[in-house]
From TrEMBL:
Annotated Pfam families: ADAM10_Cys-rich (PF21299), Disintegrin (PF00200), Reprolysin_2 (PF13574)
PANTHER family the record matches: ADAM10/ADAM17 METALLOPEPTIDASE FAMILY MEMBER (PTHR45702), DISINTEGRIN AND METALLOPROTEINASE DOMAIN-CONTAINING PROTEIN 10 (PTHR45702:SF4)
Binding site for Zn(2+): 311, 315, 321
Transmembrane parts of this sequence: 604-624
Phosphoprotein found in the keyword field: yes
Protein name: Disintegrin and metalloproteinase domain-containing protein 10
Family annotation (CDD domains): ZnMc_TACE_like
Annotated Disintegrin domain residues: 385-479
Region (Disordered): 632-676
Keyword Transmembrane helix attached: yes
Biological source species: Hymenochirus boettgeri
Substrates-to-products reaction catalysed: Endopeptidase of broad specificity
EC number(s) per entry: 3.4.24.81
Length: 676
């Protein structure tokens, strides 16, 4: 582990309690698992406790403070650690995977198209002011490969309250989100544009004291998601690539994030967008977005929040939602494509554990590449470099025990020592505890077989080898060993395999389209390899020999019914509607099954249809007869149209005079017209 300086610019500032300060981010760390290439560790150390994520080849492990989940309870441990597959999703995350529905995006698009064009004089002044130095800067930008998007992050008082009302915890949450998207974007080749990264330039923390501050636009408790984004956009963010606000609000329809979609030309919005005047008379910065960590009253797991942030930033970078068979493989009928899942910009929520869930589709890459090619040179910058003194051993360091007021290590020179001494081992010292858990306080390696890591369901206890300070990888238990309360199996030392694999089967999705087996949609189901017709629940008679009739259910929040829904806490598959009310109405009207049912009913009840037809004809004839006297005509031989009061009087008059009505209609019509 080493201090992570790549996430914060050299001039990083924090605004809090009305003051702007230079902030020490030495509690933010990054690293990798020893001996395992391609792994990643990132998090923070606050009061001696680590919080963050550890990414391995078998998935991600999250570590969080126990008080976040055991409120007002005395527990004998300070942290909880869990695998990403253990995350329970009690609710669907919005109609479109945490995004707002299509009507919101349509309204946002109208705003983006309403930017007022700047005058030619303004352009001329800008050209004069930027002549010379700007041309040179542009040339240097192209040569220096500026590929870092600088961020301005604000948090409201609700977010501050959620994370214990400490600035360290808030900044740790921001760094974990930025690191998550930084990893995704850096690993993506945007048509030759590589190593896109993110760096926080400024953070504004609105504390609980700012809840009543009139200058705080986010002080009100009940703000809709569109208005919340608008409040962020009404500030001038010209100094930043993107500006986001993090909150802990429960927005309508389960929305987790919202952002303006970027475009190479034709509309405003997205990365590097300048503050402009719009048709509503307001100046806005549309290089903005918002993220919330609350959903239907529950805290959003870091994994979901990280993917949401990557998704919304993807909109800023110019990617709409994925569509078409090429970019939505999770909807494919081909098992080989389907099992890899959908990509980051898929319109609906994804499980997060599939191969494609943390990648951009080729559709997104094409769109983002066009925007980067057009805009990145206008606001992207170069990355920074880390330094000694963070308590983590970085490249070029022998050890790192922090600064003099922090260092309790007799083996290592602290960061306040001269340049040629700091972060180096003291003479005749074999190791430093800052290098790893297999180094003693007396600066020697621990003896062989001393414990350095606890055992788990899928790995044996880790022991030192006597030759180094790092704890060697634990010996994995045998593959297909049951784990996670016998609902999964171990694969290469990680509880990551389906219980079906223990018996040479493949996991599949239960249920049929006719709805007869909907109760099995949230069961763990198995099938023989490459034989979908053998798919059956673990509790069915088909697999009774393997599972003894025991039904194993999916975790609440797991995708079901071909990724069309999520299992709720009652193990019912709740469909996710990503199309909206108009699409539902269209499907209801043009559903072939509806017309088939109507045809069957007509055949079975032909006599009722005949009676209804006769009744309809009689009703229409009566309506025409009654209303004909009130209908104007161009025929001069016909009487003029009569009002309704005159008609009624005509019908009452013959009863009063007891004369045949056929001798008096014309006179009564005329009287009715005169009296009118």
């Amino acid at each position: 582990m080493k201090r992570d300086l790549s996430l914060f610019s050299h001039d990083f500032k924090v605004e809090i309690d009305g003051e702007t300060i230079d902030y020490d981010t030495s509690h933010i760390y990054t690293g990798q698992l020893f001996g395992e290439e391609g792994t990643l560790c990132h998090g923070s150390v606050i009061n001696g406790t680590f919080e963050g994520v550890i990414e391995t080849s078998q998935g991600k492990f999250y570590i969080e403070p126990s008080k976040r989940y055991f409120k007002d309870q005395a527990v004998p441990f300070h942290s909880v650690m869990y695998h990403e597959d253990d995350i329970k999703y009690p609710h669907k995350y919005g109609s479109e995977g945490g995004c707002a529905d299509s009507s919101v995006f349509e309204r946002m698009k109208k705003v983006q198209m309403s930017a007022q064009k700047e005058t030619e004089i303004h352009h001329h002044i800008e050209e004069q002011e930027s002549s010379g130095p700007v041309i040179l800067r542009k040339k240097r930008a192209a040569q220096a490969e500026k590929n870092t998007c600088q961020l301005y992050i604000q948090t409201d008082h609700l977010f501050y309250r959620r994370y214990g009302e400490t600035r360290e915890a808030v900044i740790a949450q921001i760094s974990s989100h930025v690191k998550a998207i930084d990893t995704i974007y850096q690993s993506t080749d945007f048509s030759g544009i590589r190593n896109i990264s993110f760096m926080v330039k400024r953070i504004r923390i609105n504390t609980t004291a700012d809840e009543k501050d009139p200058s705080n636009p986010f002080r009100f408790p009940n703000i809709g998601v569109e208005k919340f984004l608008e409040l962020n956009s009404e500030q001038n963010h010209d100094d930043y690539c993107l500006a986001y606000v993090f909150t802990d609000r429960d927005f309508d329809d389960g929305v987790l994030g919202l952002a303006w979609v970027g475009a190479p030309s034709g509309s405003s919005g997205g990365i590097c967008e300048r503050n402009k005047l719009y048709s509503d008379g307001k100046k806005k910065s549309l290089n903005t977005g918002i993220i919330t960590v609350q959903n239907y009253g529950s805290h959003v797991p870091p994994k979901v929040s990280h993917i949401t942030f990557a998704h919304e930033v993807g909109h800023n970078f110019g990617s709409p939602h994925d569509s078409g068979s090429e970019c939505t493989p999770g909807e494919s009928k081909n098992i080989g494509f389907k099992e890899n899942g959908n990509y980051i910009m898929y319109a609906r929520a994804t499980s997060g554990d599939k191969l494609n869930n943390n990648k951009f589709s080729i559709c997104s890459v094409r769109n983002i590449s066009q925007v980067l090619e057009k805009k990145r040179n206008s606001c992207f910058v170069e990355s920074g470099q880390p330094i000694c003194g963070n308590g983590l051993v970085e490249q070029g360091e022998e050890c790192d025990c922090g600064y003099s007021d922090q260092c309790k290590d007799d083996c290592c020179y602290d960061a306040n020592q001269p340049e040629n001494m700091k972060c180096k081992l003291k003479p005749d010292k074999q190791c430093s505890p800052s290098q790893g858990p297999c180094c003693t306080n007396t600066c020697t390696f621990k003896q062989r077989s001393e414990k350095c890591r606890e055992e788990s369901d899928c790995a044996k206890m880790g022991t030192c080898n006597g030759n180094g300070a790092l704890c060697p990888p634990s010996e994995p238990r045998e593959n297909l060993t049951e784990c996670n309360r016998a609902t999964q199996v171990c694969i290469k030392g990680q509880c990551a395999g389906s219980i079906c694999e223990k018996f040479g089967l493949e996991e599949c999705t239960c249920g049929t389209t006719d709805g007869k087996d909907d109760k099995e949609l949230c069961h763990v189901c198995c099938m023989e390899k490459m034989k979908p017709n053998t798919c059956a629940s673990t509790g069915s008679d088909v697999w009774k020999a393997h599972f003894k009739g025991k039904t194993i259910t999916l975790q609440p929040g797991s995708p079901c019914n071909e990724f069309k829904g999520y299992c709720d806490v009652f193990m019912r598959c709740r469909l996710v509607d990503a199309d909206g009310p108009l699409a539902r109405l269209k499907k209801a009207i043009f559903n072939p099954e509806l017309y088939e049912n109507i045809a069957e009913w007509i055949v079975a009840h032909w006599w009722a249809v005949l009676l209804m037809g006769i009744a309809l004809i009689m009703l229409m004839a009566g309506f025409i007869k009654i209303c004909s006297v009130h209908t104007p005509s161009s025929n001069p031989k016909l009487p003029p149209p009569k009002p309704l009061p005159g008609t009624l009087k005509r019908r009452r008059q013959p009863q009063a005079t007891q004369q045949p009505p056929r001798h008096r209609p014309r006179e009564n019509y005329q009287m009715g017209q005169i009296r009118r």
